[in-house]
Design goal:
The protein is an alpha+beta fold. It has a single domain, classed as Jelly Rolls, CATH 2.60.120.330. The protein contains nine helices and 15 strands. The strands form three sheets. An eight-stranded mixed sheet has the order 2-3-11-8-13-6-5-4. A five-stranded mixed sheet has the order 1-10-9-12-7, with no helix packed on it. The chain has a two-stranded antiparallel ribbon with strand order 14-15. Helix 2 packs across helix 7. The protein is globular, with a radius of gyration of 20 Å. Keywords: Dioxygenase, Iron, Metal-binding, Oxidoreductase. One of its GO terms (molecular function) is gibberellin 2-beta-dioxygenase activity. Belongs to the iron/ascorbate-dependent oxidoreductase family. GA2OX subfamily. This is gibberellin 2beta-dioxygenase.
């Protein structure tokens, strides 16, 4: 294979995962799945004066959350200008030298990760890099005048703050609508989530010389209530549908919403947290921004009604169990651990 220059140094650290002792590829090809169009929901219906139109919008979200666990939204209230600004700032951030990314200003310090340090084989490896940033860090910024990085990252922080505010409001609206659809009138999932517990994750998927075998992001479900994703048009996102992997066709006008484990548990399995993954690409790098709607670690994840198939647990307990399983087995087990 011709020399492949890549930052971060994936080939140096993980290249051996993709070849046996004879130098032949050992992993199966991942690019044979069919492409699908996710259910598309026009959120303009939520503000309509026509009650039937509003109920049609709610029903479409609920149906997609049950049958797919994923849907797309348009007329979501986040301007194209803000989305494009966020993408520019994100791209500029990832273009920094590898050595510098892990030692950025206070806003980003400690949030950078790449690859999968615990991986022992290709199926456990994420061929991607990311900044996983608590919303509280974005809003607080870095006010240490001795840190020269602050001025350099001002435009990034300002774009992230506007983006986080808009996407948080969108996620809370969607969660409230879906919870209300189940007839629940008590405390809603969104009410236990705050800037201290929710995250933005800026993702970059570099070009990969093993793109026929590699994952940009390994198969998983999200350990939150709701995820809202803004992706570029490169593609690569796939989800499990009817026991088959299907590729999601990018839509430049839409954001993607998916149900997380906590919402599935809270809804008593009415809404589904669906396994999904991202494939690697040899021709183009891919960018996305994900918002994770999470509660505080001490928040108890109950249910919208009883009986529930799940015992009550805190988010902190859930996260600890997930990490223990990953460390012990190399993969997440998730909700089955919390069945009664």
């Amino acid at each position: 294979m011709e020399e492949f220059i890549c930052e971060p140094p994936f080939v140096v650290r993980y290249g051996e995962f993709f070849r046996d002792s004879s130098g032949r590829n050992t992993s199966r090809c991942l690019h044979n799945e069919r492409e699908c169009e996710l259910p598309l929901v026009d959120l303009g219906g939520l503000s309509s004066d026509d009650e039937r139109e509003r109920q049609t919008c709610v029903a479409a979200m609920a149906e997609a959350s049950s049958a797919w666990g994923f849907f797309q939204v348009v007329n979501h209230g986040i301007s194209r200008e803000l989305l494009e600004e966020m993408r520019r700032e994100q791209k500029s951030l990832f273009e920094m030298p590898f050595e510098r990314k892990s030692s950025c200003c206070k806003l980003l310090n400690g949030s950078y990760r790449w690859g999968t340090p615990t991986a022992t084989r290709a199926s456990q490896l994420n061929w991607s890099e990311a900044f996983h940033i608590p919303l509280a860090n974005i809003c607080e910024g870095n006010e240490d005048p001795s840190n020269g990085d602050e001025e350099e990252f001002t435009s990034l922080r300002e774009a992230m703050e506007r983006f986080a505010g808009a996407i948080s409001e969108l996620a809370a609206t969607i969660a409230g609508v879906l919870a209300g659809n189940l007839g629940h009138r008590g405390k809603l999932p969104a009410e236990s989530c705050s800037k201290a517990s929710c995250f933005l994750r800026l993702n970059r998927y570099p070009r990969c010389p093993f793109s026929q075998e590699a994952f940009g992001l390994v198969p998983h479900t999200d350990s939150d209530f709701i995820t809202v994703l803004h992706q570029d048009q490169v593609g690569g996102l796939q989800l499990m549908k009817d026991s088959n992997w299907v590729a999601v066709r990018p839509n430049p006008d839409a954001l993607i919403v998916n149900i997380g484990d906590l919402f599935q548990a809270w809804s008593n399995d009415v809404y589904k947290s669906v396994e999904h993954r991202v494939l690697a690409c040899s021709e183009k790098e891919r960018y996305s921004v994900a918002y994770f709607m999470c509660p505080s670690f001490d928040s108890v994840i109950g249910s919208c009604s009883e009986p529930s198939p799940y015992r009550k647990f805190t988010f902190g307990e859930y996260r600890r169990q997930v990490q223990e399983d990953v460390n012990a087995t190399g993969q997440k087990i998730g909700l089955p651990r919390f069945l009664r």
